[in-house]
Amino acid sequence: MNNKNRSIKHLIVLIVCCGLAASSIGVCVNSAGVFYTPVSESLGIMRGTFSMHGTISLLATAVISLFVPAIMKKYSYKVILIFSVLVAGGSTILMAFSKGVLAFYILGAIRGVSSGLFAIVPITMIINKWFYKNHGLATSIVLSFSGIAGAVCSPIFTKCIQSFGWEIAYIIMGISIIVLCIPAVIYPFSIDPEEIGLLAYGYNAKEKQIIDEVTKSENNFNFFNVSFVCFFVFAILHTAISGITQHLPGFAETLNYSATIGAMMLSAGMVGNILSKLVIGFISDKLGPVKATIIMIAINIISIVILLLAPSSTVLLIGSFLFGSVYSVGAVGFALLTKHFFGVENYSTVYPIISFATNFGGAFALSLVGYIYDFTGSYVYAFIIALTINVANLILLYIVVKSYLVAKKLKLENAVVNL
């Protein structure tokens, strides 16, 4: 039996990527919401104004994501990893000593750039290289740890804020970012398993040769075709919905629930984040990424209705849990859809752009949701907008699928002619 495509190394690389996802997304992004209310009140500013530092951070991540493939080709990823992890953790710790919103904006930008170097783009590039079989499940497992970290860290940070103040909580947050990345920093691995004499998990040379004949790389990828443009807009709009999650503690407060209930809602959303990412990968391997994505969007629509009509804190927690499904599409879904629609051979060209779109949408949503509350005194309008976006996204996905099927038919015809 050839162990080059099935080894303990594959499992360890999977675990390493789990730590990176937990740190760069789970702590840096998914746990940030618990700071919005206490810090904005402490500084005497609007929530939207303070949450703008999260917007700036995600925008910085979006921009650096465009250059990640080129940076990874030019420099050793270990060097990149050590530098970026220390900067991300350090900038978060410095937030504890910030007394003005400008400092948070600057540090947010620094953290966004540095965390982007070990976030979803490099993580999915590593998974694409290391996993041929069960690729959807591997992606789901890794990115579910962003939800696990969010679910675990949110109540911990909330308790720290209540007991020691938000300053100490930021120091603990910064240390957490560094600690979760230690396995990736210490363990020796390469981006491509072939560099160390291994093959992707479950690699099948004959099967891959057939696929390569049908989906040859496009040297000059057309970013202005209908399929890509609709997919790009879909990515921006969908991740804009995810900005609501970090405001769930604030939403609970407007309904006269305690900060503890608010933190529990955020944690419930992160648990939903975890499970939905695992589910979407499993469904994708069985039914395909398109059907898996549609199912998750439908669940998100149901969750919004529940949150708007919830008569009790228990129902709010259920709605928050289901709302976590929004992350399954934003993280796992778009990675799988990119590979499905545009091929693994175009992944490093297309996905950084899609990652930019997802971070762009999520970035503005953080502040937009905050300002919607600041100027209306309610989060209801944010939920109504989210419902509208979900419907629009189903239409956009339909257009992308139709365009993809037409293009696939042409490629198959050309492949048959060339055989």
From TrEMBL:
<keyword id="KW-0472">Membrane</keyword>
<feature type="domain" description="Major facilitator superfamily (MFS) profile">
    <location>
        <begin position="12"/>
        <end position="405"/>
    </location>
</feature>
<feature type="transmembrane region" description="Helical">
    <location>
        <begin position="349"/>
        <end position="373"/>
    </location>
</feature>
<feature type="transmembrane region" description="Helical">
    <location>
        <begin position="137"/>
        <end position="157"/>
    </location>
</feature>
<feature type="transmembrane region" description="Helical">
    <location>
        <begin position="223"/>
        <end position="245"/>
    </location>
</feature>
<feature type="transmembrane region" description="Helical">
    <location>
        <begin position="379"/>
        <end position="401"/>
    </location>
</feature>
<dbReference type="Pfam" id="PF07690">
    <property type="entry name" value="MFS_1"/>
</dbReference>
<dbReference type="GO" id="GO:0022857">
    <property type="term" value="F:transmembrane transporter activity"/>
</dbReference>
<feature type="transmembrane region" description="Helical">
    <location>
        <begin position="103"/>
        <end position="125"/>
    </location>
</feature>
<dbReference type="InterPro" id="IPR011701">
    <property type="entry name" value="MFS"/>
</dbReference>
<keyword id="KW-0813">Transport</keyword>
<dbReference type="InterPro" id="IPR036259">
    <property type="entry name" value="MFS_trans_sf"/>
</dbReference>
<feature type="transmembrane region" description="Helical">
    <location>
        <begin position="316"/>
        <end position="337"/>
    </location>
</feature>
<keyword id="KW-1133">Transmembrane helix</keyword>
<feature type="transmembrane region" description="Helical">
    <location>
        <begin position="169"/>
        <end position="189"/>
    </location>
</feature>
<dbReference type="GO" id="GO:0005886">
    <property type="term" value="C:plasma membrane"/>
</dbReference>
<feature type="transmembrane region" description="Helical">
    <location>
        <begin position="79"/>
        <end position="97"/>
    </location>
</feature>
<keyword id="KW-0812">Transmembrane</keyword>
<feature type="transmembrane region" description="Helical">
    <location>
        <begin position="50"/>
        <end position="72"/>
    </location>
</feature>
<dbReference type="InterPro" id="IPR020846">
    <property type="entry name" value="MFS_dom"/>
</dbReference>
<protein>
    <submittedName>
        <fullName>Transporter</fullName>
    </submittedName>
</protein>
<feature type="transmembrane region" description="Helical">
    <location>
        <begin position="292"/>
        <end position="310"/>
    </location>
</feature>
<feature type="transmembrane region" description="Helical">
    <location>
        <begin position="257"/>
        <end position="280"/>
    </location>
</feature>
<dbReference type="InterPro" id="IPR050327">
    <property type="entry name" value="Proton-linked_MCT"/>
</dbReference>
